[in-house]
Amino acid sequence: MTIxxxxxxxxHVGRVPVGGGSPVxxxxxxxxxxxxxxxxLAQVYALSGAGADIVRITCNDVAAxxxxxxxxxxxxxxIIADIxxxxxxxxxxxxAGVAGLRLNPGNIRKEEHIxxxxxxxxxxxxxxxxxxxxxxxxKDLLEKYGAPVPPALVDSALKEIGYLEDVGFHxxxxxxxxxxxxxxxxxxxLLADRVEYPLHLGVTEAGPPPGGLIKSVAGISTLxxxxxxxxxxxSLTADPVEEAKAxxxxxxxxxxxxxxxxxxIACPSCGRAEVDVIEVVKxxxxxxxxxxxxxxxxxxxxxxxxxxxxxxxDIGIAAGRNKGHLxxxxxxxxxxxxxxxxxxxxxxxxxxxxxxxxxxLAAADVTAADLAAEEAIELRGLxxxxxxxxxxxxxxxxxxxx
Length: 402
Fold this sequence. Notes:
Layout lengths: L10 E3 L2 E3 L6 E5 L7 H14 L3 E5 L3 H10 L7 E5 L3 H10 L3 E4 L7 H14 L3 E6 L5 H7 L4 H17 L5 E6 L3 H12 L7 E2 L9 H15 L5 E3 L6 H14 L9 E4 L10 H15 L4 E5 L5 H4 L5 E5 L3 E6 L2 E7 L3 H15 L1 H6 L5 H16 L5 H13 L1
Parallel strand pairs: 3-4, 3-10, 4-5, 5-6, 6-7, 7-8, 9-10, 11-12, 12-13
Antiparallel strand pairs: 1-2, 13-14, 14-15
């Protein structure tokens, strides 16, 4: 399935393109005090390593703005300053050299202040995100609508955009974040019908994992499947590195970004499993994540259906009786002892990354596939055919011949 993305204007956050058909980007935000330059930079580097393309940092006082002046030239990724209440801090952040600003229409309300920031950003050649949040909506809109409903969030964004456009500023991104997933989705749908600016997706205040992850995936992926969204952030009550990892992983799973790291698939385990699948998966994930190989790996609990069900994986292992059957693209290439399953998987993954699929298939143990087939037959005999394939085939044939 190919996702047809909505056409939006192109802008740049530093060297990172956003919108205009460019790859969907991942954002996160530091949790350190910005005045702590070294601590903030350490977190920025960690976020970059975890998959963040852009990092937002709070600019909540003069010390923070001064910290940004030191952080920006040393950062591995573009830095966006997060501004609330005080428009002069936005001007200070521009002076500090940030690659973009986030303004909250809910707490910077004076038209002349917003336009002053837009002029400064235009002179500096940096974009502004109009960051509407259901939790800090303009009180006039709350009175008009009675609650932070989707039309209220969209109206807030459009009003702010109007101020920016009045001074000829068009390097705009927009977000209309809500903590309620259906409201968040509806807000972005309404906005996408009204503007051509790139959209920054997120479920605000999603909370800690796993609930926060579920909410974020539900909202963000729904919109991405509809072609809506140019940059994303998971707002989790957790280490922000987890936000970056989750965002990057989601985009890779949806085929919107090239895989850079491990994609581990595994069976949920069942009574047919010959090993503790959960423990094997944990061990395999730990060693393979550390390796940083951009491959899809399958860990299957039994050899009966394992290689066939996971044939699209680059590499995998299926458990047999006291042994593991290592396979590449569904073809069994080696049989190893049970206690060597993870180490053999890691060894073969390294070889696969270095030599390629064809070379590793050519190096396969010619007896491995036959051994796996024999064991599958043996296990079916011992455990029975849980899928009742023979009976089903006979029943289908009987119906077809009537």
